[in-house]
Design a protein that fits this description.
The protein is of the alpha/beta class. It has a single domain, classed as LmbE-like (Rossmann fold, 3-Layer(aba) Sandwich), CATH 3.40.50. It is built from eight helices and seven strands. It has a seven-stranded mixed β-sheet with strand order 3-2-1-4-5-7-6, sandwiched between helices. α1 packs antiparallel against α6 and α6 packs antiparallel against α7. The two termini are about 25 Å apart.
């Protein structure tokens, strides 16, 4: 069961980061009547995929991915979508203090009871790690009693060995159609895999069912 929150803030660096790992959780919060703000740092303009078969080019990819992100947000019910304008694959090179302070500004404005972001060091991509680290530095600036709960996404090969099993596992099967719609919305990046994934889902493939129906998080411990 996903607890009712006052306000949820989701912070990820790329369009589609929300779709695979947390869109079911977000959709459930929306269904619960909880406001959700999604702060997406970049437009994923350095993404390797241009559609399959290609339907855009490197110059137009940011515009395509902006539109895809808006559609994914619509599919899962996010009304407050913020595109922060950082450059893809360079978040790790941003000034640590400035980036943390930008995150803190958003946190102070939105006043979330729950923040969802990446677990730094265990989320594979340098932009993922840098984003999660900035959010943690921002929350650390708050008095302990005022800090929102942090649910972190991790999926590196060693994450369970290092962190233990995830302490939050959300069953999002009730909103699986919204999750699939969010993934499909990121067409330039996901079209090649979606046909196979949907076929496997319909055939009740256990691995695909688990990937679609369950989302796991680690509560960050100070």
């Amino acid at each position: 069961m996903i607890n009712k929150e006052r306000q949820v803030l989701v912070v990820f660096p790329h369009p589609d980061d929300e779709a695979f790992g947390v869109s079911g959780t977000i959709a459930t919060h929306v269904n619960n009547g909880t406001p959700v703000t999604y702060a997406c740092l970049t437009l994923g303009e350095m993404g390797r995929n241009l559609g399959n078969p290609p339907f855009t080019n490197r110059e137009n990819l940011p515009k395509i991915r902006r539109a895809e992100l808006k559609e994914a947000a619509r599919a899962i019910g996010i009304q407050d979508l913020r595109m922060l304008g950082y450059r893809d694959k360079t978040v790790e090179f941003e000034d640590d203090e400035k980036l943390a302070n930008h995150m803190l500004e958003i946190i102070n404005e939105v006043n979330p009871s729950l923040i969802i972001t990446f677990y730094p060091g265990y989320s594979v991509h340098p932009d993922h790690d840098a984003t999660g680290a900035a959010v943690i530095r921002a929350v650390e600036k708050l008095p302990p009693a005022a800090r929102p709960t942090l649910h972190c996404v991790a999926f590196s090969n060693d994450c369970i060995e290092a962190l233990g099993e995830a302490d939050i596992i959300n069953d999002v099967s009730a909103v699986s159609s919204k999750k699939i719609a969010a993934i499909k919305a990121h067409r330039s990046q996901t079209e090649a895999m979606m046909k196979t994934m949907e076929e496997s889902f319909q055939k009740q493939d256990p691995q695909v069912l688990a990937r679609v129906n369950f989302e796991r998080f680690w509560t960050y411990k100070w």
